[in-house]
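I had to read the description of the data format several times before I understood it. The format is easy to grasp once an entry is in front of the reader. For illustration, here is how one protein appears when written out as sequence plus structure tokens:
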Amino acid sequence: AVLAATAWGGPQEVYDINVIKTQQLIGLLNPQVCEQIIYFSTASILDRDNQPLKQAGEIGTDYIRSKYVCYQQLPKLELADRLTTVFPTLVFGGDERKPYSHLSAGLPDVTRWIGLARFLRAEGSFHFIHAYDIAQVVRYLVDHPAQDHRPRKLVLGNPLITVDRAVEELCAYFNRKIYFRIPVTRWLVELLIVVFRIQVSAWDRFFLDYRHDTHKDPVSPTVLGLTTRYPTLSHLLRERGLQPDNTIAKRPSAQS
């Protein structure tokens, strides 16, 4: 069973789907038949050592808190030993025939701020992965269930990339030169929040200080002996149809 259904709506719907209904569904699986359950959580509920991040359960969004609560309750289930929990990091993907992820939908706007971002230096790092590569990993897990009936957990993502390296890669892709870089300090961030009247939640402020949203031993297709189709930001931009001249290329039709 591959459990990928989730909800991002209001608090009640989110808790009902992401916690109650997910556990009810697992409870309906036949222990005599079900060999493996692949459950989709999110890397946002884990710290840098891949342990539950308590702030996720305290100040996370409704979605984050629901995923945190569900993960904490999974060991109590009868089929807990059949569980393989996957924790995707930042997810890209989608096309004209399938919905874009939130991040991929915003990629065309990257050229609006890259001209400014190239002059800034910021401390931070993160992982990302494309939905196609997530699918590759899930198919591998389906074909290779755990042999010892012990729960597994895998963070899905490419090796970490720093914020500065990400900006450099974007600039190289769009042929934008970097002449100098100014460090972005916390007081500057606070000033921008005030000046532009940006609404910042407690969860947002936590990550302003946390900065390095990274995890141990991230799993990509390459780790499993497969080929990662989208290992770099440049691959994501090209797949999204963004060209170095800032235009969006039209994808060939299904018939061509």
Notes: The chain has a mean pLDDT of 92. The two ends are 36 Å apart (CA to CA).
